[in-house]
Amino acid sequence: MWADTVLIVFISVCTALLGEGLTWLMVYRTEKYQKLKAEVEKQSKKLEKRKEAHGDSLDKQQKKKIEREEERLKNNNRDLSLVKMKSMFAIGFAFTALLSMFNSIFDGRVVARLPFTPISWIQGLSHRNLPGDDYMECSFIFLYILCTMSIRQNIQKLLGFAPSRTASKQSGSIFGPPPQQFK
Amino acid sequence: MSRTKSDKNGNTAKTELSVWTRAITANSEWPDKEEFLDVIYWSRQAIGIIVGIGWGLIPLKGFIGLLLFFLVNAGVMYVYFSNFQQVDEEEYGGPWELTKEGFVTSFAGFLICAGNLDNNIFRSSLRLIPI
């Protein structure tokens, strides 16, 4: 079990590096992406500074200006996502194939032991294709997802490919809309 | 990472401390918010791994283990940014923004370490800890 775990951690490090390498080849190094990224960051910082400087005391003209900038930022963010999308699809397909290959290799094998019993709707994933009723036993797919969550994001951050906080803050996230919307 | 900067007259050399030094020095100044958020992010990753290893070796499992992880992780970082560094939390969007910085990644790291160490490294390989 220990060897399997180490192997899976190693696999996820390799796939994260491979994924980032491929994305660099197809997206990050292109002039279009770099230009758009710089533009988005510049605009996000400018917008944040403007919002901070004026706070709540905004007259109509300033509100309009900020709205216009937000709109421009939104468009640039959309363009940036479009540039990324094509390669993401290609990489996604490649990794789905890889994942199903590893899945069949580790099928039915307990690769780790979780420090807790997962809640029922996660058990389907964490105990996938495993014999027995010990739900603390972990399947390949669950450990791989955990590794990807932890390792991939850290690798992205280390390599400097993670999206900037200011840009993601201005464009909003899955947890909520962008703060201080002037509507 | 360490950068040195001289003032305009060139009489005295003012040393700008590296991120590492500022991170371990109380009440440091953080002109670049991103730098401080990076410190919070990486500290949280380190805490996730250290606590994961600790909980895996004790072993501390179940709901108590998870709850203690959340408390230790949030508590240590809260003490760090509010008492040790004494930053203005509102500048960063409030204590919640600082608390959630890197939390999910840290939790994943914790689970990997805690789960893997509970795989009986010592028990089955070295036979040091009695079952």
Automatic annotation (TrEMBL), chain A:
<keyword id="KW-0406">Ion transport</keyword>
<dbReference type="InterPro" id="IPR002809">
    <property type="entry name" value="EMC3/TMCO1"/>
</dbReference>
<dbReference type="GO" id="GO:0032469">
    <property type="term" value="P:endoplasmic reticulum calcium ion homeostasis"/>
</dbReference>
<keyword id="KW-0107">Calcium channel</keyword>
<feature type="transmembrane region" description="Helical">
    <location>
        <begin position="88"/>
        <end position="106"/>
    </location>
</feature>
<dbReference type="Pfam" id="PF01956">
    <property type="entry name" value="EMC3_TMCO1"/>
</dbReference>
<keyword id="KW-0175">Coiled coil</keyword>
<keyword id="KW-1133">Transmembrane helix</keyword>
<comment type="similarity">
    <text>Belongs to the TMCO1 family.</text>
</comment>
<comment type="function">
    <text>Calcium-selective channel required to prevent calcium stores from overfilling.</text>
</comment>
<feature type="transmembrane region" description="Helical">
    <location>
        <begin position="6"/>
        <end position="27"/>
    </location>
</feature>
<protein>
    <recommendedName>
        <fullName>Calcium load-activated calcium channel</fullName>
    </recommendedName>
</protein>
<keyword id="KW-0109">Calcium transport</keyword>
<feature type="region of interest" description="Disordered">
    <location>
        <begin position="47"/>
        <end position="71"/>
    </location>
</feature>
<keyword id="KW-0472">Membrane</keyword>
<dbReference type="GO" id="GO:0005789">
    <property type="term" value="C:endoplasmic reticulum membrane"/>
</dbReference>
<keyword id="KW-0407">Ion channel</keyword>
<keyword id="KW-0106">Calcium</keyword>
<keyword id="KW-0256">Endoplasmic reticulum</keyword>
<dbReference type="GO" id="GO:0005262">
    <property type="term" value="F:calcium channel activity"/>
</dbReference>
<keyword id="KW-0813">Transport</keyword>
<keyword id="KW-0812">Transmembrane</keyword>
TrEMBL record, chain B:
<dbReference type="InterPro" id="IPR010742">
    <property type="entry name" value="RCAF1"/>
</dbReference>
<dbReference type="InterPro" id="IPR029008">
    <property type="entry name" value="EMC6-like"/>
</dbReference>
<dbReference type="Pfam" id="PF07019">
    <property type="entry name" value="EMC6"/>
</dbReference>
<protein>
    <submittedName>
        <fullName>Respirasome Complex Assembly Factor 1 isoform X1</fullName>
    </submittedName>
</protein>
<keyword id="KW-1133">Transmembrane helix</keyword>
<comment type="similarity">
    <text>Belongs to the EMC6 family.</text>
</comment>
<keyword id="KW-0812">Transmembrane</keyword>
<keyword id="KW-0256">Endoplasmic reticulum</keyword>
<keyword id="KW-0472">Membrane</keyword>
